[in-house]
Amino acid sequence: MRFNFFIGTRAIFGDNCVIENEMLFSQYGKKAFIVTGKSSAIESGALEDVCNVLTRRQIGYCIFNEIENNPTMENVSEAANEARKYGADFIIGIGGGSPLDAAKAIAVLAVNDISPVELYKNSFLNIPLPIIAIPTTAGTGSEVTPYSILTRKDIQIKMSFGNVDIFPKIAFLDARYTDSLPYETTVNTAVDALTHSIEGYICKRSTTASDLLAEKSIEQIGLCIDSLIKKDIKHEIREKLLYASMLGGMVISHTGTTILHGMGYSLTYFLDIAHGKANGLLLEKYLVFNYEEAKFKIDTILKLLNFSSLKELGNVMEALLGEMPKLMIEDIEMYAEKTINQRSALNNIREVSINDIVKIYRDAAKI
Ligand code: NAP
Ligand code: FE
Hints:
This protein is an alpha/beta fold.
């Protein structure tokens, strides 16, 4: 047995955790730069709590609320210029994975004179500004990961960068902030969390320590499936989803993801399919492909989710997410090439070729 497990984020979980721990905001300086999207911070109620805390602690703040879904390098670069002008001491990210990932890029760019593409060197002269992360979706686990996934228009793909200094210093997880999520986003993000835990569980880099978290995360999501299908999502279910998502983030911080995320990125980039949904549409066929190499673990996943077969898992994904849109074979070949060139392909438990990836896409698209 061997592992080297590190999570660089203090995770504080529970209703009202921002207000109850407000003294923790004071340790990072006098000027906060708040990074968020157009509406999530306001609708969730998180921004109001944070602004009240900052005012009480006499910390100044500047709000940048123009983070796009699947943020681009141009988007984070613009925000970083603002953070620099403001002279920010620390960054507060509020929102789904998009604002949280953007906050990480901004924390680096605000103190390093580099172009956004140099983020992918993963090594920076100056240590990034400290980040406080407040998720308003339950899916990416970005609040406890050292990864930031940006959209790269230059090479037409989404790509992740990160290093140990990018772990948020603190994550405040309050499930009330996810109450305002529309149904579709609730489902898509829950499926994202599920795929983190599944991919982390059956990949080459999984360890006993990460498996423990992955199993718990999958089990918690299993307990939510009925409510998701019935569209009856009570606070207790929101809490489970947020917990499962955080655990999934801890898993991938340790293991990384695999070809499933790699394949999903093209569906998002080219077809504008939400990130979690993109992964979920491919999940059954991805597990079929890996089944012989990870039989015991995939059977455990099915048990934890209370499914009798991979087919049933596929049916539930379709019931939750809808059908895979029509794909053209020329496009599939292009997506497969992008997937095989990503580092995550090496982490897949079964050796994978470009033809294997084409087949998974084709099977999922029924062509
Ligand atoms: P998202 O793109 O952050 O947000 C999706 C939509 O939900 C946005 O329109 C957002 O509004 C809205 N929203 C968020 N919280 C809400 C709330 N409480 N109430 C109402 N609306 C709300 O979605 P996401 O799935 O959480 O994040 C996806 C991104 O994370 C992708 O770029 C993906 O690649 C990345 N990701 C990162 C990691 C990692 O380890 N770092 C892992 C997996 C995925 P606003 O526009 O107002 O924000
Ligand atoms: Fe993801």
